[in-house]
């Protein structure tokens, strides 16, 4: 176990892997794949949420990629949140109950999750020339594949188009992995494939194909992967629960939604409707909470609207 990542550029092709202890209480696997010629560094992370298995499996397979034919280096951190993976926790780190993908830029003297975010922000993101953060619907989420990119970064938007998932969402806000990396000038994309604690070969292949297209785009490989299909650029609205109770969505994945239309209800255990959720704008359902129970403040679904 080491406390610092090894050099990413030594001038010699190599494949190095191990475990790093970046902060007290955290031990994370890593892999460095250095190619036969100098070039950029692509950072790939997964397991920010420990039960998003498709993305974790894709990153683990990437970490075993041979150095042959590669220019530059790939740094893979396939499971950032190891305790969540072990405990099958959703959204949050068991150490402090916080969602790492809301904690950036973090704090060096903060809670476990804040310190982990600070380490990524100060020690890892500066090493990269481009960044892919792999995700997928958690144990309680069903989703159609889509990516997100920081809306104020044209380079990130281009990278999302290259990655090639059918929808790319222009995302705002602070506290997220890709927005934090973008603040450092790193083109960044968050890719979402999978869901409900299930992983399948086609989802893993979809993520690995996107990574190959990005590697080719960066000039890190000479092969030409199959091109992506059309990518629709959207914004996304995410309503949250005003009450706790039983969640009954009225729309399925991919279904169209009209502004003002009822998209779901929250009911008591005895069937009384305590909240009705209406769409604030037209669009299509990109993901939905698949759990019967919802807690107050949790996301119910994501409605994507085409960006003009």
Characteristic terms for this protein:
308 residues; OB fold (Dihydrolipoamide Acetyltransferase, E2P); Aminopeptidase; globular; alpha/beta; 4-stranded antiparallel sheet
Enumerate the spans where pLDDT stays under 50 for 5 or more consecutive residues: none
Characterize the main sheet: 13 strands, mixed
Please state the average pLDDT score: 96
How many strand segments? 17
Query: How many angstroms does the end-to-end distance come to?
Result: 49 Å
The proportion of residues in beta strands is 25-35%
The value of Rg in angstroms is 19 Å
> What's the CATH class of the largest domain, please?
Alpha Beta
- Helix proportion of residues, in percent? 10-25%
Q: Please give the CATH architecture of the largest domain.
A: 3-Layer(aba) Sandwich
Oligomer status? single chain
CATH superfamily of the largest domain: Zn peptidases
Q: How would you portray this structure in words?
A:
- This protein is α/β, with parallel strands linked by helices and 308 residues long.
- The protein folds into two domains: 219 residues, Zn peptidases (Aminopeptidase); 62 residues, RNA polymerase II/Efflux pump adaptor protein, barrel-sandwich hybrid domain (OB fold (Dihydrolipoamide Acetyltransferase, E2P)).
- It is 20% helix and 31% strand.
- It contains six helices and 17 strands.
- The strands form two sheets. Strands 1, 2, 3, 4, 5, 6, 7, 8, 9, 10, 12, 15 and 17 form a 13-stranded mixed sheet that branches.
- The radius of gyration is 19 Å and the shape is globular.
- The N and C termini lie far apart (49 Å).
- The mean pLDDT is 96.
